[in-house]
Amino acid sequence: MTARSRLDGGIRVLVQRPMNYAYHAFELEALRRAVGVARVRFSERGFPEPPRGRDGCAMIVSRPGRPDRRLYVSTADPPDLYPAWLDWADVYAKVNLDPARVPSGCRARVVPLGPAFGFRTWSPPQLLRSRFAPRGLAEGGSRWRAWRGTVRTWRDRVPLSAYVPEPGRDDECFFVATPWVKHTEVNAPRATFMRVAASLPGVRFTGGFAPSSPAEAAEVPPGLLAPRRYRHRDWIAATQRSLAVFNTPAVHDCLGWKLGEFLALGKAIVSLPLTRALPAPLRHGEHLHVVDGSEDEIRAALERLRDDRDYRRYLERGARAWFDAHLAPERMWARLLRIADGGAADGADRPAGRSEELDVAEGEAPRR
Predict the structure, then answer these.
(1) CA–CA dist 165, 145 (Å, integer)
(2) Are residues 167 and 315 in the same domain?
């Protein structure tokens, strides 16, 4: 029996339109793999209010012989929860979840999703046949611009299958970041990582800050301008070769796209502490290597990863194993349905009404 037949069972899914293709690639891919695009339709009807920007992905899941289940997925950077969707959803899944924001009485239905990122999934013809309508990044954006952004994501980004783990090389380090203008505090630790990597004996560093506007270019520290902007497939290839990568919480302390991509690529991740809840802890020394952002700690981490290949391989395997266990689209889909049906998130026999997700990782940062 295939994975799809085990999950399918005559399932049909109604998805709210419009929605953002890039920010909800995981949901679209889960539907493609576990349900099949022919059994998914997009509609404005049956939902309590219009979606909020790129944030909302609401789904009504119908299965023969079972009650319909209502799933809401939030990918917004801020930790806010929306009351109308809390009242509506059987499961409210959020990428950037702050457990302190969860109202009492909702804990069993509000779960952390883990870091997400955009990739190529449904093709434009499949979207059109299913009556998909795209949502742009800003409220009130034109439908044409939203369609153009959707097609650009499908064209420019790689499919999830391209995230193939490869052992990092001992003598190469690659890291590229966009310089933030409104949230410049994100730039400083990334600049420190670049400077340390560039000064590491025996290691050739490539990358830097890659601005896309004059305002962003003004935020690039001296000597840290990337030689070019990298196409996504080139970024993937260079990241695969890198001995290590660097992760920081981004805007509103959110779990940025790069964290999810680094986990999917099975990289040795040097990371600042994380403050958002996760479906399971990311542990220091097992899934990533946590530093405080100082030059001394970043240098010590990179020197160890350069010199201790066994430790580097251990982190690489741990990162991808965490992705497979907690972020893989089929696993995510099965988990949300299981919780909607009243079961435990990990399939264990636990009392009904508990939020296993918040018990496991209630705002927990990786321990050092």
Answers:
(1) 34
(2) yes
